[in-house]
Amino acid sequence: MEIGGDQEGVEDVVIVGGGIAGLATTLALRRVGVQALVLERSDQLRASGGAILLFSNAWVALEALGVAHKLSSIYPPLQSGYVTNESGEVVSHRTSQESNMKRPVRIVKRKDVLEAIADELPTNTIRFSSKLSSIETRTNEASSLALLHMEDGSIIKTKVLIGCDGVHSVVASWLGLSKPVYSSRSALRGLGVMPQGHGLNNESHIFLQDGYRVGVGPLNDREAHWFIIYNCTSLEEDEENMIVMDPKILMKKVLQMVANFPPLFLQLVQHTDPATLTWAPLMFRIPWDLMFRNLSIGIVTVAGDALHPMTPELGQGGCTSLEDAVVLGRHIGTCFLKDKIIQPLEVAKVLKLYAKERRFRSISLILASYVFGWFQLEGSFQRLKSYVRDTIFFKYVYQRTIAHVTKYDCGKLPVV
């Protein structure tokens, strides 16, 4: 095939993955006048995970995308958060007034985030049941194309390829990034519905207990998101125990795990529809992989979990995916508005700028998340380690770090 010849049937931008990162990036590009095609392997929008925590940095990104008002109008802000240790002692308490955030923290259903973004996109932007098999690129002095070989045998040609295809990203592998590794932690999540109200009063609670970190947070007066993060040294063993179970059997196992936690948590689990229950091994990318490998090659790059899979202790997975989207839209949009056309060789230059901007942000969040999890989850604490965790880590490091990372401003999209 001759590059630079007939460009009929060539997409300007293809985004692999219709999760938060993929849809947000598509909308960011649309805001600056660039049309993108989303390839989603599922047959509908994926809403797994139940709910996500959105900090100030996420709301900055959602405002840039023009959809923040859709979510902030239906989800109340959290007023305070507590962390309680094995002895029942509150080792961290932070109020919204102390945080001094212009954009308070909210817990939002993942499905609502996806729909708020998808509703802004033109019909047929998302092509469902489309699974990427492999990638090929063709380049000469004048132009560059990516050829996407799909599982159904079709080939899609594009001037720009952005991989938002999650932890096990085909695009990230093509770039040469190593596979994410198991953190020796897994997570169970669900949505509890209390018809008479849960009484959380817009407060989130985290409980620590011998290798377990469990938490609850309200979405509204009746619904609350809950999670269990626990240590497991063998992924194969954990998969054998969890993945083969049907939801009802898995629910019984969850109830056994939370038997010694506060009654409110137990009640929320008991009032959870098994269909909302999810289990996942927690993976993360080795930080030096991001340090020394390419995050973009020519017209190809990655965003979201494909770029920076991390453990959830900082609550930044979804937040940083939204950041990625706006930063990508900002760089590509600036290039597009100057030339009024997608020129792959020029886009390749701005993708390098995007990669440079996101590299150290991603590395720092992956590292901080993993270390925070180690402090909170390490079972059988020795006295000294427990003392350091409760009197130094939670009192001086925990809140300051969260305050620092959530102040990040991804910027605004250029005006069309």
Automatic annotation (TrEMBL):
Domain FAD-binding: 12-333
Keyword Oxidoreductase in record: yes
InterPro entries assigned: FAD-bd, FAD/NAD-bd_sf, MOase
Highest taxon, organism lineage: Eukaryota
One Pfam entry name: FAD_binding_3
Molecular function in Gene Ontology: FAD binding; monooxygenase activity
This protein's UniProt keywords: Monooxygenase, Oxidoreductase
Family assignment from sequence similarity: Belongs to the 3-hydroxybenzoate 6-hydroxylase family.
Name of this chain's protein: FAD-binding domain-containing protein
